[in-house]
Structures are given as structure tokens and as C-alpha cells.
Design a protein that fits this description.
The complex is a heterotrimer of chains A (263), B (224) and C (639). By secondary structure, chain B is mainly alpha-helical. Chain B has helices spanning 2-7, 13-38, 40-43, 45-56, 60-90, 106-109, 111-130, 147-154, 158-185, 194-222, and strands at residues 136-139, 142-145. In chain C, strand 7 (191-199) and strand 8 (202-210) form a beta hairpin. Classes of the chains: A alpha+beta (263), B mainly alpha (224), C alpha+beta (639).
């Protein structure tokens, strides 16, 4: 809309050819940035210039561009998703910046998220933690009537607060310890709140935490950086609930090796 | 994987945090006792010396308590240090100088540093006072150590007072984050009363750190 | 060559067809299931639920997705809800009711038996999702809450805040992860399907590109499930995600799968308008806003006053004026068209004049700001974040945008395409929504196909088809891989001057202007000429750097755009040949006196199924006649 007050931005962007290469910050200048552009559209404009100049474009992850798929990432001026309240990078708009600003753009950095190229990182560690127990074993066809199990509204609402996690990994990237406690806690907490999740609750907590620790995430020291950064506003109360679940499970869970019985 | 996960507790991120939290809270409890005892300094030399003498006369029981305290302290120290080293590695490499936090507070960020100061402090504290000059005195005909004198004498040096005030500021920072954080780690963060725990945490930190710092300054002003 | 377009609808009364079919279908015994491998391409609601269910049954599943994790498929962006004929609110809903609404909403261009089955399994979906821990909205008593949606007179929509799609997808994803942990699903991420491998007339594998390394990989299986979603991005701007594309489906079309009704596109009336050339996507504002918002334009052309300064008598609340009984809640196709008509008349608002107002002033006056905030607060925030306008103080500006494609690969009642062994699920197929989809039905269809239909019909296929042993070293795989390599080399060898995005944008203009909300013979012919020329220019003037060895995003983009251009041509052709108006397909030549869509049931009660006949010959249009035995064809009226 506004064509009159276009801006010029100085960007410092992390360029790294692939997983093993050395990376560095490279300076770029983007002119004619409209305040109505989204942050990613601004990078589209830069990439367009790079293609025309015969250069390799800047690789960054993105997909839905409406703040729900969790694919976009980036540390913008040192903050995951740019540091705006409840906002993913794709929903950051250029009107939040001023003409002439210098903006530093880096990939999400954590040992568990190795760099793939430029601003793209590999977040498959999140899937590994989810596969360790972030589910309810309800095979298709087993389900009782949906209203057979009553769930009080406040409980359903709290479970929904936790379930809102988009798996973007901003909590990990912003954590001084590279810890995955918030996204994991959100899932453990969601399923611990719901009656459907109870039968597997101890196993879930034990297995997920074990996997979390072995794929390279750090430990929680309650900085609450994750809570401040989370684009979905997920509270560290869910980490506490997981800690509780884990404590309970570690001291009570016992599984005997039994044969399944032939019949 | 399941067996490994069950046996993982004492090596796990959360299990070790539980231990750090529990040992931390025990140390917090110890500090309350220590400060209440030390307040007897204000009552006078005899009161303080009798209190100390009663503790000393516990004999083997005292050694047991001291050993337990030392163990709690060492577990706390060791695990916190281990976690800190792991966390530095898990962070990945940041090249960015402008990285600024939003949730992290000065208190939470300085935990390893204030912890290190406290470690040095405790060693010196034991050397200077517990194992400091052994004066003797008699109260009501009973021979006992004049720990009061050792203490007040020690604080005649402004350098010592300044060091203690500084160390206690560190202790305040450390416990202000540590106290409430311990509840979070143990899973006791309930929205209903967690804000109150945070307030208690700050009150605790101010009281303990302020109390000890006040006593060192008081000793300095009181003179021998 | 001719297609076998037998829909294979089971005989018998409508309500018993599916049960009867389930009984008659062949099954694979549990011990034998582990001998079969099934490829599932895509991990949205259809692909995710199918992969999880097939793995639970015991099949070996190879699952592929284009994103870095299966949890990001675009089903995640659905906001409103999912329909189910539970009749929990006791408002008289039933399977038959949901069936009827969906058939009517689709303007009588979908297959009765499929739609009825969809309505039947809708209830199982709700049960299944609840048991997986989806936190649907609840009432204080703990029971599930329902709300109403466009095109229905009952409350049958289950929802999880404004994130229903996300919660359902995460449910399906968690089911997948459970089977990944058990080793029954092998998950391949950042892979794009480049070709279908057909051996002895049956789909037996796929060629995929590893997007990071650029390498081509071959995978063989006993059946292939295509769950790759819709092709709305052919318009360049749409509400689809950036990676949503037609390539997988298009390559299947070229390998012999019929493409049905490609021109059936849903244009959603309430999206944030286009604001600049740099724009990469359009954002949807939930249909639910029209419950309280009033749509209007100024009566005077070129009125540049601020909306608040335009007095009541100078505003045209055109939906309320034209459709007094449905008002602002007229269906999507109708509302979109009316917005376009107003803008064409020069009454559009905003800097581009391609927008209409959606005004909450009266609702706020009536119910108070707090009530409105409780209903739509998150949407208002999102709107403000994008436009910097506050909808509490000034009306939203909205305009229609491409949202969903009802067309897709043709499938029979078993969801099998014209290539045996290639089954197509979810938005990628054409089957259930006819010429217009009702709100909250897309999620329902994806999950129905994946959870409750395909697992049965795949077993039937595997049990009743002789499948010779095939490995990735077979010639068919080598040839398919070679073809992809050649195409890639050709793209990289052009060394022209226009970028893939330039071409995509140009294609988008043709599509939106001539194959969009309103179509005419003249316009469609213009589009056909233009797109054909664009195709030539693309293959002679594309600018592309780098090679295949690195994570070459421009190459990936160009490959998709090449297929979009060909699809665009087919869509225009399909729209040209369908000489009637129905649902989202509006031909200016076929309208009533008051500008409503005029169907031609005598000549067009069929699905048009296109057959690929080679790069240098025109595709052939086949028909599957649609037989209506249970509903009477009637004119949709919303006045």
C-alpha cells in the first residue's frame, strides 16, 4: 500500500554452503522495502536480486507463511523469530523496522539443530523426541464414542494451551542451554492432562526425557527464555508438569518382562 | 529403550535437576539455621559462645551433620557444574554479539558465577572462622572457645567486610533464582501459588544475604 | 486409448453400499501384510492418517514429505473446524443430512456414493481424533462443543480454537510417529516426488528428489498412495503454503492417471487483499467473521473518503440487498463473485480498489467490544499484524482469494486412479466436493480417506491383484529417473533472463484474470494462447543458476513452475469445455437474469476426466456420468 515511505535495510546474513563448510556473516543491502512486506518477503526480494545477478539464493525454511506450520525460523538480531510477542518470523512485518536499520540474520543455533545450509537447520531431533512417546496409542478403529469421556472445559483449555506448540524450535534456539524442555513439556503436559493419555503417561515421560537427553538437547535451568520467545505463548508451567510426571514415573514405573502368552 | 529410560533417572536432565533442586533447598534451610544462630552475636559474646559450645559438644553427631552437609554441598556443586558444562556444549556456536535475552535475568544468567564465588567464599569462610584463631574463654565456669572474639576480630578488616558483603550479594542473587527455580524443577509450579513462591524467593534472598552482610558490618562497627 | 472410468460403485441402497462393499472386499491376512510395502506421498491429514493406519495394520510404509518434518503439511493451516454428523446438539442432524448438504453445496457435481460414505465415516473421525488426544472445545459439563458453519442449518462443526487443522494434523502425526518408533513407517523428509513408476500397467514405485543433496532416489512398493494436496498455487497467489504444488499429481497424470475437473477451484471470499507485487501469499480470515461482520462498498464510484465518513445511506450492503434471507452468510462462491462484481463496477475500496469492507461497527455497537473480542480477538490481532489497521476502529478490507481445488486426479469408489495401484486421497483427488466445497469439509474428507477408506480398499487391491516382484533396478525405474535427469539438465541449460518466479507470477495473472472467479469463452481463449506462449518462453528464457549438487532452491521452484504452466493450460481448457456455470465455475455466458450460476444438467452432469496423450498432442476429454438416484437436482437459491 505505502509506496511513498519505502526503506533501505542493511542485512548481515549467515551464509554457509553446507553442513560441513565454514560459515560467515555476509553484508547485503536491500532497497525499496515496503513497510507492508513480511520479513520473508523482504528476503524474497533479496533472493530475487541474487538470482538475477547469477548468485546462489539464501536458503531459509518457510512454508505456510501464516504462523502455524512452524517451519520458518531464523535468529533476527539475536532473537528467535525476531523477538516480537506471539509472532513467528513469517508474521513479522517490515514496518517494525526503520529505514537504514542494520539487521543481523542467523540460523537457529543449537547442538541439536545442525545447519543444513545458510539459515536452514535440521530440526529432526524434535521428531525423534516425539516418536519416543508424544502420542496416545489409539489405533484406528478402537475409539469409543467421542462423548463417552468427559473432559472439564478448564482441563481441555489447558491441554489446548499446551497443544498449540508448532514445533518450530524457537524455544531451543533461544535457550542459553539449547534445551528442548518447552516443546517436550508441552506435549507431555497436554497428554498428562487428558484422561486418554493416562495409561501411557509414565512410559511417555521416561522415554521422551531419555530421548531428549540423548539427541543433544541441553538441560533446563529455568531462565524462562523459551516462554518469552514461544510464538504460541506456551508457559513453563508445562515443563513443571513434565518434571512432576517424570519424578512420579521414575520412582513408580516398573515393567516386568512377561511373555505375551500363547493361546 | 524402556529399561534404559527407567534407569536413566540419576543421569537424566530432569533427575539431576531434581537433585540440584533438593540439595539447593537443603542448603537454603541450613542458611536459615546458620543465620538464626549468628543473630546471637547481637545478644552478646556469652550467648553466642554458649550457642557455639553447645553445637561443638554434640561431638560425633555434629561430625555426622557436617559430613551430611558437605555431601549435600558437593552433590549440588558437582551436578550444577556438570549441567553447566553440558549446557554450554548444547548451545551450539553463537557468533552473534548482539544476542540478547528476554526471559533470562541477571540472576539466572549469573548462576554459575555466583556459585563459583560462593565456593571460594565457603572455603575461606571455614579457614578464617571455623579453623581460625582458637581463643578460649570461660562462661559460668565452663571452658569454651571464644568464637565471638574470632569473628569480631576478623571483621575489623574493612577488606574482609567488603568481601563478605560482596559474597552475600552473590548469595542473594544465587538464591533469588535458585529458590523459586527449585520448585519449578521439582514440578511444583502451580499457577495458583507460583507467583507467591517467587515473592518468597526474593524475600528469602534479601533476608539471608542482608542478614549476614548486616552482621559483618555490625561486627566491624562494634569493635573488639 | 480409452480410460476405464467405471466408478465401481457397489450395488444396493445408498446407505448400505459401504457396509456391503466392506464385506465383499478381499482382505490380507495379518501374517501376509508384512510382506507388502506401500508408499505414501504426503503427510497431511490424508497421508498422515493413511500411513499410520496402514502401518498399524502391519504393512511396511514408506512415507515421504516435502517439509523438514511430517508435522508441517498444509492441513495444519485449516482454522474453522471439522464436520461430523453426531447430532450432539440435538438439532436434527443425521448422516443423510450431512450427505445432502454436501451434495447440494457441491452444486450436484460430485458422486453420490462417495459423499454418502464420507458422511457415514464422519462420526468415526471425531471419535478417533478425541481418543488420540485432540483437545476439541468442550462445554463446562465436559461434553464436546459444536458450532455452525456456512451452507448448513445445523451445528455440526467440531473445533479446537481457530486451530482445528493443526490439532487434527498433530493427531495424525502423532499416530505416525508411534509407528515410526515401531519401525513400521520409514519417514523420508525433504523429499519431492518427481515421477511415478509404472510396471506392467501397475503403479509400483516412485522417483523422489532429495531436496538437500539434489540426488534422485528410487523406491519400489506394491501400491502408491498419493496424498499431495491441492494445486491452488497455480494462481501464484493463494492461501496455500509455499511448498504446495502440483508436480507429484501432474507426473502421475502424465503416467496415465486421469485428471478430473481441473477447473473446479474454490475462491474464498474473506482474505486479506493483495497489496504489492512482492507479495508471496494471501492470508485467509475465517469465514466465521461473516456471522457478525457486514459486507459493504460505497454507492458512489471513486469515493475516497474514510469508511467512517461515509454515511449510512451512501453504503451498499450488497449481500444483504441481493440475498435477504442469507445475507452476509451467503455461500463462498456466491459471496466471492459478488465482491468481484462490485470491484469491476469501480466500487472497490482501498489503495488498489480491489477490496470490499467487512464492518464490525454495528456488531460492536450491539454486543459490545468485549463480546466481539471474545469471538474474533485472535483474528483481529492477526489482521492488525498484517495490515496495521485495527478492525475494532475501522472496517476490515477483504477480497476473495484462491483457497482450495475441488478438482484433482480421478478416482473410483475405492480411491484408485486410472492407473491400477495408484490411489489418490484427500484434496489431491476429485471425488467428494463437486464444484464447490462447504466449510469444515476438507478436514473431514482427508481423514475419512486416510483412516477409514483407503486402508480397506488397499487391502482389497493387494489381495486381489497379482503383483510380480519388482526392484528399483528394473528398467522402468531407470527410465523414469533418466527422464527426470533430462528435464533437470534441460532446465539448467536454458540460461535465459527471466526467473522462475517471473514466470509463475505471469501465469498467475492469466489464471486469476481469465480462469478465476468469472470465466468467458473469449477470456479462456486469451488465457490458453497466453499460457501456451508463456510455456515456450519458459523453456527458452528461464534464468537458473547453480547445479543439482547443492540445496538449489531455484531449481526446485523452476521444476514446479514448469508443471504449473502445463496445468494452467489444462484448467483453461477444462473451463472452456464446461459450457455451464456450477459452483465455483462461473461462465459469464451461462447465467440467470440476476447474475446467478446457471447449470446445464442435461449436458454437463458429469465429471470431465482428462487423459494425457503426449507433449505435442491435445489431451482427451472423457466423461464419467454422474448418476443421482437419491437426490433431486435443484437450483441452489440463497435469496
Amino acid at each position: 500500500m505505502a509506496t511513498t515511505n519505502n526503506m533501505t535495510l542493511n542485512l548481515k546474513i549467515w551464509r554457509q554452503k553446507d553442513k560441513t563448510s565454514e560459515g560467515k556473516l555476509v553484508d547485503y543491502r536491500v532497497e525499496n522495502v515496503s513497510p507492508d512486506m513480511s520479513f520473508l518477503e523482504m528476503i524474497d526480494v533479496l533472493n530475487d536480486q541474487l538470482v538475477r545477478k547469477g548468485e546462489d539464493t539464501i536458503a531459509f525454511d518457510h512454508d505456510c507463511r501464516e504462523g502455524i506450520c512452524g517451519m520458518c525460523s531464523m535468529m533476527i538480531n539475536g532473537k528467535a523469530h525476531g523477538g516480537f510477542k506471539n509472532t513467528t518470523t513469517c508474521q513479522v512485518h517490515m514496518r517494525l523496522y526503520k529505514d537504514g536499520d542494520t539487521v543481523v540474520i542467523e540460523p537457529f543455533r543449537a547442538k541439536a539443530f545442525p545447519i543444513v545450509k545458510d539459515l536452514t537447520v535440521d530440526r529432526s531431533a524434535i521428531d525423534k523426541v516425539m516418536a519416543a512417546g508424544g502420542f496416545i496409542t489409539a489405533n484406528t478403529g478402537n475409539a469409543p464414542d467421542a462423548n463417552a469421556m468427559l473432559i472439564p472445559k478448564p482441563v481441555a483449555d489447558e491441554a489446548m494451551d499446551a497443544a498449540a506448540c508448532i514445533g518450530c524450535g524457537a524455544c531451543v534456539a533461544s535457550c542459553p542451554n539449547g534445551s528442548g524442555m518447552l516443546f517436550m513439556g508441552a506435549k507431555v503436559s497436554q497428554l498428562a492432562l487428558l484422561p486418554q493419555g493416562q495409561p501411557e503417561s509414565p512410559k511417555r515421560a521416561l522415554n521422551m526425557v531419555y530421548t531428549h537427553d540423548t539427541v543433544g538437547f541441553g538441560n533446563c535451568t529455568t531462565h524462562a527464555e523459551c516462554e518469552a520467545t514461544c510464538p504460541k505463548g506456551i508457559s513453563i508451567e508445562h515443563i513443571a508438569r513434565m518434571n512432576r510426571e517424570y519424578l512420579k514415573a521414575a520412582f513408580t514405573y516398573h515393567e516386568k518382562n512377561r511373555s505375551e502368552g500363547a493361546g | 529403550m524402556m529399561t534404559a529410560a527407567v534407569n536413566h533417572y540419576f543421569r537424566s536432565s530432569i533427575g539431576r535437576k531434581h537433585l540440584v533442586a533438593i540439595t539447593g533447598l537443603l542448603l537454603c534451610g541450613f542458611l536459615v539455621g546458620h543465620l538464626s544462630g549468628n543473630l546471637l552475636l547481637l545478644v552478646g559474646p556469652d550467648a553466642f559462645n554458649i550457642y557455639a559450645h553447645k553445637l561443638f559438644s554434640l561431638g560425633p553427631v555434629l561430625y555426622l551433620i557436617e559430613a551430611g552437609l558437605a555431601l549435600v554441598f558437593l552433590v549440588h556443586l558437582y551436578l550444577a557444574a556438570r549441567l553447566n558444562i553440558e549446557n554450554r556444549q548444547a548451545r551450539g556456536q553463537y557468533t552473534l554479539k548482539t544476542r540478547t535475552g528476554r526471559g533470562t535475568t541477571l540472576m539466572s544468567a549469573s548462576m554459575p558465577y555466583t556459585g563459583a564465588v560462593l565456593l571460594i567464599f565457603i572455603i575461606l569462610h571455614l579457614l578464617n572462622l571455623k579453623f581460625g584463631t582458637n581463643y578460649q574463654t570461660q562462661v559460668d565456669g565452663v571452658q569454651m572457645r571464644d568464637i565471638y572474639r574470632t569473628t569480631v576480630e576478623f571483621f575489623q578488616s574493612p577488606v574482609n567486610v567488603a568481601w563478605y558483603v560482596f559474597a552475600m550479594a552473590c548469595a542473594g542473587f544465587h538464591t533469588a533464582h535458585g529458590f523459586s527455580s527449585a520448585f519449578q524443577s521439582l514440578g511444583l509450579n502451580f499457577p495458583k501459588y507460583y507467583p507467591k513462591i517467587k515473592i518468597i524467593s526474593y524475600l528469602y534472598a534479601v533476608t539471608i544475604a542482608g542478614g549476614f552482610a548486616f552482621l559483618s558490618i555490625w561486627c566491624y562497627l562494634k569493635g573488639v | 486409448m480409452s480410460f476405464n472410468l467405471d466408478p465401481k460403485i457397489p450395488a444396493g441402497p445408498l446407505s448400505e453400499k459401504w457396509d456391503k462393499h466392506k464385506f465383499e472386499m478381499k482382505r490380507v491376512n495379518p501374517a501376509n501384510k508384512r510382506k507388502f510395502t506401500v508408499i505414501v506421498v504426503g503427510t497431511g491429514l490424508a497421508g498422515g492418517s493413511a500411513a499410520a493406519t496402514l502401518a498399524e495394520l502391519g504393512y511396511n510404509v514408506l512415507s515421504f514429505c516435502i517439509q523438514d518434518t511430517p508435522r508441517r503439511a498444509h492441513s495444519i493451516a485449516a482454522q474453522g473446524g471439522i464436520n461430523g454428523a453426531k447430532n450432539y446438539p440435538n438439532d436434527g442432524d443425521s448422516v443423510r443430512n450431512l450427505f445432502y448438504d454436501t451434495i447440494k453445496g457441491g452444486d450436484y457435481r460430485s458422486r453420490e456414493a462417495n459423499v454418502y460414505r464420507l458422511a457415514q465415516v464422519s462420526n468415526n473421525i471425531i471419535d478417533q481424533m478425541v481418543s488420540q488426544g485432540v483437545p476439541f472445545a468442550r462445554e463446562y459439563g465436559g461434553y464436546l462443543d459444536n458450532r455452525s458453519f456456512g451452507g448448513a442449518q445445523v451445528s455440526r462443526t467440531f473445533y479446537a480454537r481457530g486451530q482445528t487443522g493443526q490439532q487434527l494434523l498433530l493427531g495424525a502425526y502423532s499416530g505416525m510417529m508411534k509407528m515410526v518408533a515401531k519401525g513400521k513407517i520409514k519417514q523420508f523428509t525433504r523429499r519431492e516426488m518427481m515421477d511415478l513408476v509404472v510396471v506392467n500397467g501397475k503403479a509400483r514405485g516412485i522417483i523422489v528428489k532429495n531436496l538437500i543433496t539434489g540426488e534422485l532416489e528410487r523406491y519400489a512398493a506394491d501400491a502408491v498412495l498419493l496424498c499431495t494436496g491441492g494445486y491452488g498455487n497455480v494462481f501464484y497467489l493463494s492461501t496455500n503454503a509455499q511448498h504446495s504444488n502440483v508436480t507429484a499429481a501432474w507426473r502421475c497424470y502424465k503416467r496415465g492417471a486421469g485428471f478430473a475437473n481441473p477447473c473446479f477451484t474454490q475462491i474464498h471470499p474473506t482474505c486479506i487483499p493483495v497489496h504489492g507485487d512482492y507479495q508471496s501469499k494471501l492470508t485467509l480470515m475465517s469465514e466465521s467473521l461473516r456471522n457478525d461482520g457486514r459486507v459493504w462498498v460505497p454507492k458512489k464510484q471513486g469515493d475516497t473518503r474514510k469508511p467512517a465518513e461515509i454515511p449510512e445511506e451512501e453504503r451498499d450492503y450488497y449481500l444483504e440487498r441481493i440475498y435477504p434471507s442469507f445475507g452476509n452468510l451467503a455461500p463462498r462462491d456466491v459471496s466471492s463473485r459478488q465482491a468481484k462484481f462490485r470491484c469491476d463496477e469501480g466500487l472497490g475500496v482501498g489503495p488498489t480498489k480491489q477490496a470490499v469492507y467487512l464492518d464490525f461497527r454495528d456488531a460492536i455497537k450491539r454486543d459490545g467490544k468485549e463480546v466481539i473480542a471474545a469471538r474474533y480477538g485472535n483474528l483481529f490481532e492477526m489482521y492488525e499484524r498484517i495490515t496495521a489497521d485495527n478492525p475494532y476502529n475501522t472496517p476490515m478490507m477483504i477480497y476473495p482469494a484462491v483457497h482450495y481445488t475441488m478438482g484433482g486426479l480421478w478416482v473410483d469408489y475405492n480411491l484408485q486412479s486410472t492407473v491400477p495401484g495408484l490411489h489418490v486421497l484427500g484434496e489431491a483427488n476429485f471425488s467428494d466436493h463437486g464444484a464447490n466445497r462447504l466449510g469444515a469439509s476438507a478436514l473431514m474428507q482427508g481423514l475419512a480417506d486416510g483412516y477409514f477408506v483407503a486402508p480397506y480398499t488397499i487391502s482389497n487391491y493387494l489381495a486381489s491383484t497379482p503383483l510380480e516382484k519388482v526392484t528399483v533396478d528394473d528398467n522402468a525405474f531407470k527410465d523414469a529417473e533418466q527422464a527426470v535427469k533430462l528435464q533437470t539438465a534441460k532446465l539448467l541449460g536454458i540460461k535465459g533472463s527471466r526467473t522462475a518466479t517471473d514466470f509463475h507470477r505471469a501465469l498467475g495473472h492469466y489464471m486469476w484474470d481469465y480462469v478465476g472467479m468469472s470465466r468467458s469463452e473469449k477470456g479462456l481463449k486469451t488465457a490458453l494462447d497466453g499460457i501456451r506462449k508463456l510455456k515456450e518462453e519458459f523453456w527458452s528464457d528461464l534464468k537458473l543458476n547453480g547445479d543439482t549438487s547443492n540445496y538449489n532452491l531455484e531449481l526446485h521452484r523452476a521444476t514446479r513452475v514448469a508443471d504449473f504452466i502445463e496445468l494452467g493450460e489444462l484448467m483453461a481448457l477444462d473451463a472452456l469445455e464446461r459450457r455451464e456455470s456450477c459452483g465455483g465455475h462461473f461462465r459469464e455466458e451461462y447465467q440467470t437474469a440476476d447474475n446467478e450460476a446457471k447449470r446445464d444438467d442435461e449436458n454437463f452432469t458429469h465429471a470431465a476426466v482428462w487423459e494425457y496423450t503426449g507433449a505435442n498432442s491435445s489431451p482427451v476429454r472423457h466423461k464419467e456420468e454422474l448418476v443421482f438416484e437419491n437426490v433431486k437436482l435443484a437450483t441452489r437459491s440463497y435469496k
